[in-house]
Specification:
Length: 172
């Protein structure tokens, strides 16, 4: 007995195959999704924007980018002049102040607040040179974030940043 139309057995084969395919897809979706990075990981590498308007002259703030402390300091004209009058050749890590700030925005110093000696967090607007002081081992940085005294071998690092306007920067 052969019939030209679909049989009950044909329906069961198609239905079983469809359920199996849906089950396989449902199993693969979470396996593939777990390969994507965590949202906190994505956010940790994202650039941040900082509004500079509330920062008064002579004030330093600390923000965090990629888990690192970033100091943003609003320097006075006298601090800028003092940083520029230093004999660069006398510094342990010679670098001119103009190379550490963005042209036209000399009053804003942006540095990564991690001591280059052993990775401690220095204190802003402290020390013998009025810049940064690392109390752990006594490194003194000037108002340009350059090492002036102590065991630190290098200047405070400068993160990648750009001015979006006169009162806003993007770090990262």
């Amino acid at each position: 007995m052969s019939s030209a139309g679909p049989t009950r057995r044909d329906f069961l084969f198609v239905a079983t195959g469809a359920v199996g395919a849906i089950g396989a897809a449902a199993t693969l979706v979470p396996l593939i999704a777990q390969m994507n990075p965590d949202s906190s990981t994505v956010a940790a590498g994202a650039p941040i924007e900082v509004d500079l308007a509330p920062i008064t002259q002579g004030q330093a703030i600390k923000v965090f980018w990629r888990g690192k402390p970033i100091y943003i300091e609003h320097r006075s004209k006298s601090e800028i002049e003092a940083a520029r009058n230093v004999d660069v050749a006398s510094l342990p890590d010679p670098q001119a102040d103009q190379a550490r700030v963005k042209a036209g925005h000399d009053q804003w110093l942006v540095v990564i607040g991690i001591c280059t000696h052993l990775g401690c967090i220095p204190i802003a607007r402290q020390g013998d040179f009025g810049g940064f002081f690392c109390p752990c081992h006594g490194s003194h940085y000037d108002t340009s974030g350059r090492i002036r005294q102590g065991p630190a071998p290098a200047n405070l690092a400068i993160p990648p940043y750009a001015f979006l306007s006169d009162s806003k920067i993007r770090i990262g």
